[in-house]
């Protein structure tokens, strides 16, 4: 039996089982008694504990890695630098590796490949911005969650796990298929090495094959240096040309000819995703220099410079005359361009610019009326006031007159949705330090005093939202600061079902503090009108709590919410890969990611809200190439119990 399973580390982490093993470490599933959550703990193998250089780098870089906080990176919660054990405590992920996903699927449809690649690049860009390069990007280090979310794992190990000897051996076989040429040569690497690895993974997702395969790691590395991979479209003809160009550009052997940053590659993928017919002007680089193998390190032969000609070519009169003729012709063309429109009068009519703000970008560009009169450019950015895909600003304002069919571009600024950030862990910090750290991350801070048996006066007890929660940038965070041990204890009044002001008065009279949160009414909760208390925390149980403690009141918005489960057909217009969207009053309110109708029989729209007890929605299905089509109309009785028919199909 493993020596750690069943043991408790540092009196806190109960090791349950081994969930993975790599060349450098074993990963265990454990329970964190202090935070009451499951975690993953990576424990370095004992044979690496005697390497002083390795330990030095592990300590330095583990601290840096723990600073990473991004939705597409596995969170690191804790590190330990003991003499007998070195470990990293991470977020526990329920999912499979991208490698397993690819092996199960064979190859991915290009939309899913782009979806995964963009998430990986977002996580890598965050790390690169912090000065951290992964250096071991491969599908074995990418986790795929059930909802399609990607999590990049194993940051840091690769960048310091190489020994001083840079020979590529068979021990590297798990990674050598994805390493960049500069890594194969044992050279210093930067973030562009990660870009190359993402290109290889994108190649594998699209084709189901690795670009280079051989019997040994050294042979694969030599191929990484010498050969160009087979074009993805030669393996899978359905891959769009633009996506092939992006993939091959990321896999250029010269660092200077690759994407220079993850955000640069992200930009191309995003533009391609919105217009799959888009192509790029990248020239595929072919490395013609011979390569030799020296002492276990793959190195290119030095280039032989072409000798300069010793004699100057004689110049004649003909090239001079030809140059004069070309210049004369160009001058005439320029004059015609400038003066001809004025001679014959300008063409085109003045059109008034509409207000595009609040409209869905897809509806604008698909409207033939707009297409005839305007040239659109797009720019995507985060915006908290408009949903994803909706225009929140335009470069030429409403009412301005421009020439139709002219070269005047209108830039539409399209919402990516609100930018999400993670709430700082400021537990047990001083009030001043906690405020400074939260405000540095652009949070608005409210300080609420609270008595505490455990936390010293002046230190933070907890926050709301809780630490590590993902919220919109600029959100308000309430910090509860200890006033010291309580001197008196009071009973909590029951204020559920009462109007907010009356409830607050009762709690204040009881010497309790009040925090208010608005909530929708779930189907299994007793309905309360807008402004009335739906529930409270802590509840009134008869027991007493410290005077000055906080009671949270959850107050009704007057809206109802319920989960709507939709049964799906086996295909749509002959297509199996489709999206499902929910509409009300002619507006789309929710949409799924790509669904494979041969593998899923239903889809659930979660927390669908309505202001009325009875609401009607339309469900639409859209294939990859076919247009959106009404699938069914549903009527929801939000006051019905779960046992009653919550959803009634009116037409299908």
Shape: globular
* Helicity level: 25-40%
State the helix count. 16
In terms of DSSP E residues, the strand content is 25-35%
Task: Summarize this structure briefly.
The chain is α+β, with helices and mostly antiparallel strands and 652 residues long. The chain has 16 helices and 33 strands. The strands form ten sheets. Strands 1-2-3-4-6-5 form a six-stranded antiparallel sheet, covered by helices on one side. Strands 27, 28, 29, 31, 32 and 33 form a six-stranded antiparallel sheet that branches. Strands 23, 24, 26 and 30 form a four-stranded mixed sheet that branches.
What do these coordinates show?
With 652 residues, the chain is of the alpha+beta class. The protein has 16 helices and 33 strands. The chain has a 6-stranded antiparallel sheet, with helices on one face. Strands 27, 28, 29, 31, 32 and 33 form a 6-stranded antiparallel sheet that branches. Strands 23, 24, 26 and 30 form a 4-stranded mixed sheet that branches. The chain is globular and about 95 Å long.
